[in-house]
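Researcher: I need the complex structure. Ligand is nicotinamide-adenine-dinucleotide. Inputs:
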Amino acid sequence: MSNPSLLILPGDGIGPEVMTEVRKIIDWFGAKRDMKFDVSEDLVGGCAYDKHGTPLHDDTMAKAQEVDAVLLGAVGGPKYDSLDFSVKPERGLLRLRKEMDLFANLRPAQCFDALADFSSLKKDVVAGLDIMIVRELTSGIYFGEPRGIIEEGNERVGINTQRYTESEIDRVARSAFELAMRRNKKLCSMEKANVMESGVLWREVVTEVGKDYPDVELSHMYADAGAMQLCRWPKQFDVIVTDNLFGDLLSDAAAMLTGSLGMLPSASLGAPMANGRPKALYEPVHGSAPDIAGQGKANPIACVLSFAMALRYSFDQGDEATRLEQAIEKVLADGYRTADLLGEEGKQPVSTSEMGDAIVAALDASL
Ligand code: NAD
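Model: Output:
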């Protein structure tokens, strides 16, 4: 049987720096756990524009469609700010998401014990937190028609349309139920069925899909109440599923419960391929951080955790993903901190590569 395939797109700014650390970890799994991947690497974003005049070459797009998973660093930077919208670095990422039809965006909010003091919430509210928000990514108000700014009488009117088909709700709900089955079998669906028809339909379809997952405890919550509950007692949740707009807001709020942008991974999943694996793109939530690029200051953990998600959701290696997460927990408990995790303490930070090396050492220690 051939090895699972992984396309790595480091991108711009700190993207290549954090990806170098992920490569060390991929090599470790190959050498020490006999998990070999067919890894290929290509360009996306500004660096692809510099070479090809487009932020995503057609050949790269074709490769992304073929592999078992894509791992992306970050794109963008001030050098490209004045480019035409059609060739901006971000368009490369948007094209990947669109053409791979990645409709389920997974955003975990996981609090490592060693960083519990770093949250703006009280320690007992966030310590041990481990929840997953599933956001619908390809439909809803960001895409619905009609849209635009029109003249009406003597003033302008801004219009966006929230629109969801049953099948769009069905497929993202199924992804969320499948996830809940692998976790603590609790799913909370959030919408505004009290004031939006699309919310009424959302609730009906999610309830219907739930009949196929009798082991999962399904609950419904209005999204505004959900936002309050996320801040009040987030540990009441396991998996949350919600639409594109509410998911955008709720996942950012939930992520910040846990501290730094440098710690946040994400996955975007599509329909299953012929081999049963979902189409998948894994990437840290952060951008290319031009303010610290090239200085060895970037925290590689968000990108490493994105690879851990790939192990779990694309390669069926949940135990190895847990091993990697525990290695990160250990280096944090041992006091390793990149500059973004230091706060006001005034300690000496470790560099990007020192953090990567420490994680590899912790992996060694796990054997
Ligand atoms: P950003 O995420 O790049 O940076 C925001 C702040 O967080 C900066 O101070 C940065 O130094 C810090 N930061 C981010 N990641 C970090 C890490 N791993 N370790 C330590 N500190 C980290 O967001 P921005 O400054 O708004 O955008 C910069 C560029 O990145 C822009 O061109 C933007 O379009 C692009 N961007 C790309 C993506 C993506 O590739 N998915 C996402 C967001 C922004």
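Model: Summary of the prediction. The chain is about 40% helix and 20% strand.
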